Amino acid sequence: MFKSMPPLYDPVVWAIPFFLVAISLELYINWKEKLNLYESKEALSSIGMGLGSLVIDILMKGLAYGTYTILYQFRLFEIGWHWWSWVLIVFADDFTFYWHHRLSHEVRILWAAHVNHHSSQTLNLATALRQSWGEQFYKYIWWMWMPLVGFHPLMMLMMMSISLIYQYWVHTELIKRLPGWYEFIFNTPSHHRVHHASNIRYLDQNHAGILVIWDRMFGTFSPELDDEKPIYGITKNIHTYNLFKIAGHEFVDVYRDVKRAPTFKDKLKYIFYPPGWSHDGPDQRAKTLRKNAGIK
User: Fold this and answer.
1) Ramachandran area for residue 240 (φ above 0: left; ψ -120 to 50: alpha; else beta)
2) Are 68 and 141 in contact (CB under 8 A)?
3) Which residue among 5, 171, 205, 275 has its CA within the 20 to 30 Å range from the CA of 117?
4) Could you give the C-alpha distances from 66 to 77, 93, 150, 164, 257, in angstroms and in order?
5) Is residue 194's pLDDT more than 70?
6) How far apart are CA 96 and CA 163, in angstroms?
């Protein structure tokens, strides 16, 4: 029952040569123009995180496919495979990704799984491969509503892969701005540079996958400003290339905070409140920091 999606149906498999060529091209431009976009050990750790995530995802994608297949038997509508089905699933998948991604920044235990993707202090196409290990164990839960309304499980997983491929190319500093209409509708390198920045103005903004319209609609959009260059990394950088520390450091910090919390309520807050909340220290949550800095 819990069978895997056939590898040849996964667009990511076909995109691997594109990933390699794109990194090679960016490395060449970086070398030729002396741009200092790469730090070798950090890039290698990003690739290592990507390989680890891929191994975990092989198992979890099979489990997700089987679960979606069971849920699909109870579908409310017969959406099928039509051109308009793909239009619908682009919006349905991207809306789901937005909320999964946003809450991964606003709920600390979810942030503990997601933070490694932001821990690189450089932004390049290798950073795109710095995928979470922990997220793979639960992320597919967010999409469980889709087979119930009638989206075929295979179509769903194909769409998730297409979204992942799209999000690859926005991890670069080489592309500055695209035409205004494109920047208004779609996620772009400019928008995603903001997302990876640790500047107070940019914290927890631009959670877009493919479409940036959700950020505009729900108040999490911030443009990249010419007079404020993004500073990449997290607010407290970890300075390590150890893959297990990269993947698990925030879980350790959560455990320590929960252990020292004086009340059960405070323990729950350390798990479910946004990162930066403290029962005995300054409030370092992103919204509080922006408010204190006079940034709307």
Assistant:
1) beta
2) no
3) 5
4) 19, 18, 15, 21, 37
5) yes
6) 11
